Amino acid sequence: MNVNIKEQDRPSEEYDMKAFPNAYLLYLIEFHATRDFFECHELLEEYWKEYPEDPLTETWLGFIQLAVGLYHERRGNRRGAIKMLSQAERKLAASPLEELGIDKDHLLKQLLPRLSELQSDNETVYVDINLRITSTELLARCQQLCEECNLLWEKPSSLVDENIIHRHLRRDRSEVIAARLKAFEAKKRERSGL
Question: Could you tell me how far CA 60 lies from the centroid of its own chain?
Fold first, then answer.
């Protein structure tokens, strides 16, 4: 998603509206408007890797795992969903979500029964999770960005859009493959002393 957000992408000890990383704002928009959980994961993973010293590193990882877990669940990968959502729950339960304008109790009240249901033998139907945003300023900014991009805030997931549901199978991986090949060739030269 190409959203032009003016806030600076940087880690900060205090997360006020001016200091929220762009990746976080974009994550919230993808999470609530496009429901492209694969993109949510990509956005925060890039930030998480770029800023490993960010004081909220474990929180970012929890949000990444939440998106990946929901991606797996929506695709019918129950085992992957349980693994990722369990890890997300542990990380997010220990995180200061309030500093990021998120109602932690509300999120955990959605996650825990969902995990129990996934772990049961009962057939489950995917239902979206919405993060309750407690910061009126953050919510207004996200909704404004959605409007600018002609997106609908809290739009329900499409359970038939193959491009969203199976995104990892449809994306262009040529850059990733080329980078891996380049790294492999460099290691090979290093080992042979060239």
Answer: 8
